[in-house]
Amino acid sequence: MRAGTSDRLSAQGTRLNKRGIESRRRLLAVAIDTLAHEGPAGASANLIAKQAGVTWGTIQHQFGDTDGVWAAVFDNMTELLEAADFAPPGTPTSLHERVSVLIRRQWDGYARPAARAVENLRLALPRDQETLDRDFPRTAAAAERMTEVWQATWVDLFRDLPVSDATLRRLRTLIPAAMRGLRLEADMPGHHDPEEGVRGLIDAVAAYLDAASS
Asked: What is the pLDDT of residues 20-35, one digit of tens each?
């Protein structure tokens, strides 16, 4: 089911009334908050039901099962990505500016609960894709939709550059991993300035794209 439409339907496919929609959104908000603050240990639908003060039957009615809850968390992130504007205002003056806006907005986004929830959920889910597809098919499909939106964002932002799909694919993989490392480093004891790391990442990506498009 496409992101943005599922919050109006129950797990059985029946249309939710206003109260039902509000209940589903509240449960999703609790799921995101729990995952964001509890880490991978928060990936428990029973814990989420307890935090929300509802029964497992309510979770089943709204989401079907645990798979449905996790799929909703990914779909929420997909909606946020679709609504985000990673392009600089007006006409970008340089490749460096374009890269800077993309990375800084993504960096800011990683601090938000929805992004932290997705990252922690990914850590809790099976690493093996075949196992994920088998045990959490709706979650796997929702995660794939999120990836497709992120890929489309890159294509749209840099479609005017003569760079290969392989180049963009490498950067799409590198940047989130680099940002997770910077976030982790910033949380460790010692004097670490994540801003310096972000600047270095911007410079490196801009230089890589410039060389690839020359």
From this structure: 688 888 999 999 999 9
CATH superfamily of 6-212: Tetracycline Repressor, domain 2 (1.10.357.10)
Q: In the 8-state DSSP scheme, what is residue 90?
A: S
CB atoms within 10 A of CB 99: 26
Q: What is the model's pTM?
A: 0.85
Instruction: Write down the domain spans for the chain.
Output: 6-212
Query: What Rg do the C-alpha atoms of the chain give, in angstroms?
Result: 19
Q: What is the pLDDT of residues 90-123, one digit of tens each?
A: 766 688 988 998 899 889 888 899 999 999 999 9
The token pair at 158 is 């840099």
Q: Which of 170-188 are b and which e, b meaning 16 or more Cβ less than 10 Å from the residue's Cβ?
A: ebeeebeebbeebbeeeee
**Is 24:75 a contact under the CB 8 Å cutoff?**
no
**Cα–Cα distance for residue pair 129/142, rounded to 1 Å:** 13
Largest Cα–Cα distance in the chain? 59
Residues of the chain with pLDDT under 50: 1-4
